[in-house]
Specification:
- The protein is of the alpha/beta class.
- It folds into three domains: 156 residues, Aconitase, domain 3; 106 residues, Aconitase, Domain 2, CATH 3.40.1060.10; 178 residues, 2-Layer Sandwich (Aconitase, domain 3), CATH 3.30.499.
- It is built from 16 helices and 19 strands.
- The strands form five sheets. The protein has a five-stranded parallel beta sheet with strand order 5-4-3-6-7, with helices on both faces. Strands 17-16-15-18-19 form a five-stranded parallel beta sheet. It has a four-stranded parallel beta sheet with strand order 11-10-9-12.
- A hairpin with a 5-residue loop joins strand 1 and strand 2.
- The protein is globular and about 55 Å long.
- It starts with 5 loop residues before the first helix and ends in an 11-residue tail after the last helix.
Length: 468
Amino acid sequence: MSRGTLFDKVWDLHTVATLPSGQTQLFIGLHLIHEVTSPQAFAMLRDRGLSVKFPGRTVATVDHIVPTENQARPFADSLAEEMIVTLEKNCRENGIRFYNIGSGSQGIVHVIAPEQGLTQPGMTIACGDSHTSTHGAFGAIAFGIGTSQVRDVLASQTLALSKLKVRKIEVNGELQPGVYAKDVILHIIRKLGVKGGVGYAYEFAGSTFEAMSMEERMTVCNMAIEGGARCGYVNPDQTTYNYIQGREFAPQGEAWDRAIAWWESLRSEADAEYDDVVVFDAAEIAPTVTWGITPGQGIGITETIPTPDSLLDEDRAVAAEAYSYMDLAPGAPLQGTKVDVCFIGSCTNGRISDLREAAKVAKGRKVAAGIKAFVVPGSERVKQQAEAEGLDQIFTAAGFEWRQAGCSMCLAMNPDKLEGRQISASSSNRNFKGRQGSVSGRTLLMSPAMVAAAAIAGEVTDVRNWLS
């Protein structure tokens, strides 16, 4: 088993007890909730006559079901309106901080917590959402949980969990122009597989991650779950501290100095022992696009779709399913594939740096005829900052729609949906069948800059050809 890693240290510091099952009862420092997975959890508490144990450690926002065009209340979708009303009521009755639409701080749960300084190194964080692993970018241990576990955290501020093994994933070297954090994590998942991380926490290390901004690290950790890992993290460093300092919930004054000293002590030791170590060369990573129905079915933009005989035996069945569903031929290039919809946003790639990179491609150009292209900021604060920088004007001048903050077409629990067999170039995190709102819709995952290039070209294209 691993020893001396950040994961081991944070796990041990938050262990309340070892349960008869052998699982650990783990204290959760920060609980994030939203409108989709919390209503049933609150109802379970009421049925048992229980209250929220530590309401000050729970923070709520609304993101999955909110419309990104017309956010006037009541929502046109009666179920969406019922869900937000229920969340408003539950937060009000339990004294939980709630960032509602129009507060100036609403947005995707995994965007708003870091931007307000709620997410900090050494924390245990839980949320009823798969992509809670995002917060590991700060040196936190963050888990996505189910509704019954949301209930458990509300009632006890603890979770029953089995300790994970730790795999160190090193990427070293400088990324080529046009290659982004999204390409790095898609490359890792391609190589290790969507089940490769089962039973593991992923520690992302090496000079490539050390050179990344916090928002880039968040993109990588966000998709650790897509590689099968329960969580992913990066050891905190000066980049981490610079990002947190001065934010609303960051320690102040002498408390800041004490916090940094403690955060430094949590870093994985130089002689830490890992259950596994994998090393990649950044120079080998190209702009990457998924061609299939899992995030592991990705290729470099200049490669061709793999043929069955080039795949491992265990990968051929899902590949055959993907060829048929996606209507793509083995051995054919993905570059040049026509797209219908281009979506920039999500908890993976809806932050200000993502919008800046996409705007560099869009500036002075026009979206191809017949293409629906839209940009959805990850939070109201991201939207405000983008507008202050004039990014919204760049996008709208190019023919993109500029929307309100929300999850949008990432999972389509709102009006933003694919129709029929449309193909989407998407900066989101999942390309499962039906993921973007149509049972037959098709999703190609790529970086925001690649989505912007696809919108302009009207087809999948190499963003490197569009960068001046």
